[in-house]
């Protein structure tokens, strides 16, 4: 009988020991490590996108800067599904978002192309904002010059700003708009003409600046800013001067 009782006690102790080992605290279990990999891609043209943002399923975002060759890469991101969105550089429109799945061995996202934004021009006349709905750029070989026209109406009907630039091809830099070679005109809705280089004849001070900030050879477009004070070409005009400020143009062809 005593041997039977001892056997039962031994079995009970052994069972308790095994049970304790199998039901140990989960805190002692090693944590599963998240897999990470590199997500990379390419945009064209190379300078068309500034940054790329990857957003995971939880809404967490990662940002990569696009290099001068148009390449980008996200290092050590957790594998899984992401949505890529693109922040365009000035003068370009954003490509559509791209869905991609990052695998354990790394993933190359589909290449994307950013479209060139259409030509635009805005300016103010005596503080009133104007938008040029029609933009013309014409090279004049006979005078080796270029004429730009920014107008709100088809057929160059006023109000219109016209700029004459020395040289057929634009170059980055600043030009005065108070010379015979480089000057500007504003035509008011009543067809009164105001000249940036017309103040001299009336003994009035002249001012005007045209800045070309960017020139692209592929595609052939340029961008910049302008401002000037136009003096009326007629002695009966009212007012005698117009002030054009905050002129901004982008992607004007040449």
Search tags:
mainly beta, single chain, eleven-stranded antiparallel sheet, 19 strands, Immunoglobulin-like, four-stranded mixed sheet, disordered N terminus, elongated, 254 residues
Short description:
The chain has 254 residues and is mostly beta strands. Helix content is 10%, strand content 50%.
Q: What share of the residues does DSSP label as strand, in percent?
A: over 45%
Supply Rg: 34 Å
Helix content: under 10%
Termini separation comes to 111 Å
Low-confidence stretches: 1-30
The run of helices and strands is: HEEEEEEEEEEEEEEEEHEEE
Report the major sheet. 11 strands, antiparallel
Which secondary-structure class do the elements indicate?
mainly beta
- On the 0 to 100 scale, the average pLDDT is 88
Shape: elongated
Number of domain units: 2
Continuous helix count: 2
Strand count: 19
Explained architecture:
It is built from two helices and 19 strands. It folds into two domains: 36-113, Sandwich (Immunoglobulin-like); 120-253, no CATH class. The radius of gyration is 34 Å and the shape is elongated. Strand 17 and strand 18 form a beta hairpin. It starts with a helix and ends with a strand. The longest helix is centred in the N-terminal third of the chain and has 21 residues, at 2-22. Helix content is 10%, strand content 50%. With 254 residues, the protein is mainly beta. Strands 9, 10, 11, 12, 13, 14, 15, 16, 17, 18 and 19 form an eleven-stranded antiparallel sheet that branches. Strands 1, 4, 7 and 8 form a four-stranded mixed sheet that branches. Strands 3-2-5-6 form a four-stranded antiparallel sheet, with no helix packed on it.
């Amino acid at each position: 009988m005593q041997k039977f009782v001892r056997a039962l006690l031994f079995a009970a102790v052994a069972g308790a020991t095994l049970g304790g080992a199998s039901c140990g605290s989960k805190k002692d279990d090693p944590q599963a490590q998240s897999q990470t990999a590199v997500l990379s891609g390419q945009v064209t043209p190379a300078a068309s996108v500034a940054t790329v943002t990857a957003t995971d399923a939880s809404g967490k975002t990662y940002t990569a800067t696009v290099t001068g060759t148009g390449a980008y890469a996200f290092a050590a991101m957790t594998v899984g599904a992401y949505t890529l969105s693109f922040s365009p550089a000035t003068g370009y429109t954003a490509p559509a978002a791209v869905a991609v799945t990052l695998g354990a061995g790394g993933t190359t996202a589909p290449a994307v192309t950013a479209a060139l934004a259409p030509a635009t021009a805005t300016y103010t006349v005596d503080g009133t904002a104007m938008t040029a709905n029609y933009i013309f750029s014409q090279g004049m070989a006979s005078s080796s010059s270029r004429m730009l026209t920014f107008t709100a109406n088809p057929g160059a009907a006023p109000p219109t700003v016209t700029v004459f630039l020395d040289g057929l091809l634009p170059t980055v830099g600043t030009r005065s708009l108070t010379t015979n070679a480089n000057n500007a005109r504003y035509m008011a809705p009543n067809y009164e003409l105001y000249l940036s280089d017309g103040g001299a004849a009336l003994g009035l001070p002249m001012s005007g600046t045209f800045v070309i900030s960017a020139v692209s050879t592929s595609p052939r477009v340029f961008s910049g800013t302008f401002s000037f004070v136009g003096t009326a070409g007629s002695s009966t005009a009212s007012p005698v001067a117009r002030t054009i400020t905050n002129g901004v143009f982008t992607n004007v062809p040449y």
